[in-house]
From TrEMBL:
Name of this protein: Maleylacetoacetate isomerase
NCBIfam families: maiA
SUPFAM superfamilies to which the protein is assigned, alphabetical: GST C-terminal domain-like (SSF47616), Thioredoxin-like (SSF52833)
PANTHER family named in the record: GLUTATHIONE S-TRANSFERASE YFCF, MALEYLACETOACETATE ISOMERASE
Keywords noted in UniProt: Isomerase
Protein species of origin: Bradyrhizobium denitrificans
GO MF entries: maleylacetoacetate isomerase activity
Amino acid sequence: MKLYSFWRSLASFRVRIALNLKGVAYELITVDVDRQQHREGAYAAVNPQMALPSLVLDDGTVLTQSLAILDYLDEACPGPALLPADPKGRARVRALAAMIACDAHPLTTPRVQRYLTEVLHLDDTARAAWLRYWAAEMLGAVEARLAGDGATGRFAHGDAPTTADICLAGHALFARNQGLDLGGAPTVQRVVEAAMALPAFAATHPLAQPDTPESLRRAPTSS
Ligand SMILES: N[C@@H](CCC(=O)N[C@@H](CS)C(=O)NCC(=O)O)C(=O)O
């Protein structure tokens, strides 16, 4: 398999975690979003939406959209399940994942940030406030959903990592990058720490990727 990815793409991070949890070998192909490579013809031919990630299967099938890719990997690959077995549990995990991947993340993607600055002429301070606001809003919403819910365990759902933890790991990183203290969301902080302690999460951390700029790159760690 080939994964088109970028080190700081949080949607790519989700798929890297899932591939590692499942123990699936893949070739990593960098598409540099900072240099707009995702908008060039070569990548647009892979994914006309011009967004990362894309996973190209050995038979040439192109899969896009991180949540759809996670579902594919869960259905097609052996290894630990990314969703619980029971329908109510699956719905809960999918809801947590959707809060992050469908509600929060789309507000902060590079194309949205470009529109904020180039069309609406927001300055850096206003743009940073936008990112921080939506990071905090979702952190609070997920905390409210997890805290005191008996279905929350060592991880976001029970005692094994699921798609919810995969999405939450990226959102926690994003929130920290916006200067937020996860101490204000103690349940999120606890389950993300548990997830990031797992090798599949640590190894796929944005700062531990082959395409992470050298000045930022570090060995896989748990935070
Ligand atoms: N819903 C998509 C999000 C895809 C997405 O927006 N990816 C970002 C990187 S995390 C991207 O490629 N953005 C390019 C842009 O906004 O121009 C998914 O989960 O895969």
